[in-house]
UniProtKB/TrEMBL annotation:
One Pfam family in the UniProt entry: FMN_dh
Identification of the protein by name: (S)-2-hydroxy-acid oxidase
Lineage: Eukaryota, Viridiplantae, Streptophyta, Embryophyta, Tracheophyta
Chain residues that bind FMN: 80-82, 109, 130, 158, 233, 255, 257, 288-292, 311-312
SUPFAM superfamilies: FMN-linked oxidoreductases
Organism: Quillaja saponaria
Family: Belongs to the FMN-dependent alpha-hydroxy acid dehydrogenase family.
Cofactor entry: FMN
Amino acid sequence: GKMEEITNVTEYEAIAKEILPKMVYDYYASGAEDQWTLKENRNAFARILFRPRILVDVSKIDLTTTVLGFKISMPIMIAPSAMQKMAHPEGEYATARAASAADTIMILSSWATSSVEEVASTGPGIRFFQLYVYKDRNVVTQLVKRAERAGFKAIALTVDTPRLGRREADIKNRFTLPPFLTLKNFEGINLGKMDKTDDSGLASYVAGQIDQSLSWKDVKWLQTITHLPILVKGVLTAEDTRLAIQAGAAGIIVSNHGARQLDYVPATIMALEEVVKAAQGRVPVFLDGGVRRGTDVFKALALGASGVFIGRPVLFSLAADGEAGVRKVLQMLQDEFELTMALNGCRSLREITRNHIVTEWDTPR
Ligand code: FNR
């Protein structure tokens, strides 16, 4: 059938587009405004080429790594994305099971259509919780404590969303959460629903509930309400890298929110090296945005990332084939990455170096 014929991650998008209601597909696929950064997140990977090393014994290859002390099968993890039950009835449960079957980490979104407790009940697995900071700090404190109790191992604090980016498809579609779903983590406190407005319903929800005054002192505040390590998600500059480390971040995620927030920021793979240099090895640096191939993963690691996260491929494969789809996405990326390592002469992640790539912005050697 159709699903067996899929040979790479991007092929799921066309299937998802056929299956999903237009409002849902557009919400998942879109970027902000001109979507320049959306295209750039992909295009930039093509400006990096390999300098493979030959005649290295690559009969055994080790993809395993450790993230915040947790051993996982590969440096490929699942980024938080909201409202996964719009893609498939099993939504976040399917994603959680697929991540755990692949022995990798899933970050659950604050705006999941399944609660932290429900996702925890799907079985064992290493999971992080993505946090949006609400104006009502009691809401935040309770939610972080619930995530901690449910066994989540870290907080990914999203810092690029004081207001929602202008996603024009969502405005045209008057995007809102379908009536049979809720933002499950907020169900009991009357924040689980989104009004239908003549704008994007999500943009209105963010304007009403999310704290636009969030600042570095709040990163410190967060450490007073939880002992979980904090990853700062949405860093694109050396300046903010240094501030994040000063504020106590345990790690940094170089992210432009899948090009859904500020348009005309650089592709994440273009910003990565600046952040890695500023971090000076003091905390691990991760990347998300446009990762669709094993070669992309290798390039990110060669530029100093400790691992990558994938967003849309999870949503599209979930829509097309539920848990099996997400499993296959993770498997295909793992296989491609392993092959990329072999063909570059690398047997472990440690052996991937800056000299295995050349970028368009490198000066000729
Ligand atoms: C996201 N992303 C996101 N990030 C976050 O911190 N909290 C969230 O709730 C969401 N929700 C969300 C929904 C959808 C539909 C998308 C596409 C993305 C951003 C996500 O974590 C990640 O940064 C990007 O998706 C990575 O880029 P790619 O892999 O989608 O290109």
